[in-house]
């Protein structure tokens, strides 16, 4: 894939065969409850009114009800065990993400090294402009680029030719048609992942810019480019 340069502003562990203590305890409880249920059912049959005995279907309903509860308990225990295993696996996998660069629609940290942008012009765009703002939302640059989805590089130089300081920057692509803006979308960038954690069942990534994003927002991963 060709990269355009615009100047000066845009240049585990396997499953165990032995059940854990929790699962064993749950199995014992189910077994104990089932024995109690059978004793109660036997007592009920022995003491029923001979002139008005219970229908066999009533016994079947009671047995089916207990069986359903038993299966639900086992299912819940199984899901809890699977959740724990998946959580451990995810954390193990995420450890390899730290230090990688993730591409997502977020801000980027500029450290005097050119930043590659991945524009996506709106359909029908006749002209496109990259708008650069700092961490406070102040516009630092606005420069026209070709109407294309080819990546471009931002060299960190303002429209006046001044070298901008290191810091957090946001990039938006304005698409114009007939002199009117028909699209204004933030441009995806690559940022280094400095931390990965799980919160409320969701994987959160912390980027070098300080921004936090969900792992589901990442559409590409790569190794950091080697320093020249």
UniProtKB/TrEMBL annotation:
Lineage of the species this protein comes from: Bacteria, Pseudomonadati, Pseudomonadota, Alphaproteobacteria, Rhodobacterales
Protein name: Basal-body rod modification protein FlgD
Keyword Iron-sulfur tagged: no
Key words of the record: Bacterial flagellum biogenesis
Region Disordered: start-end pairs: 1-26
Domain FlgD/Vpr Ig-like: 109-177
InterPro entries: FlgD, FlgD/Vpr_Ig-like
Similarity annotation: Belongs to the FlgD family.
Function per UniProt: Required for flagellar hook formation. May act as a scaffolding protein.
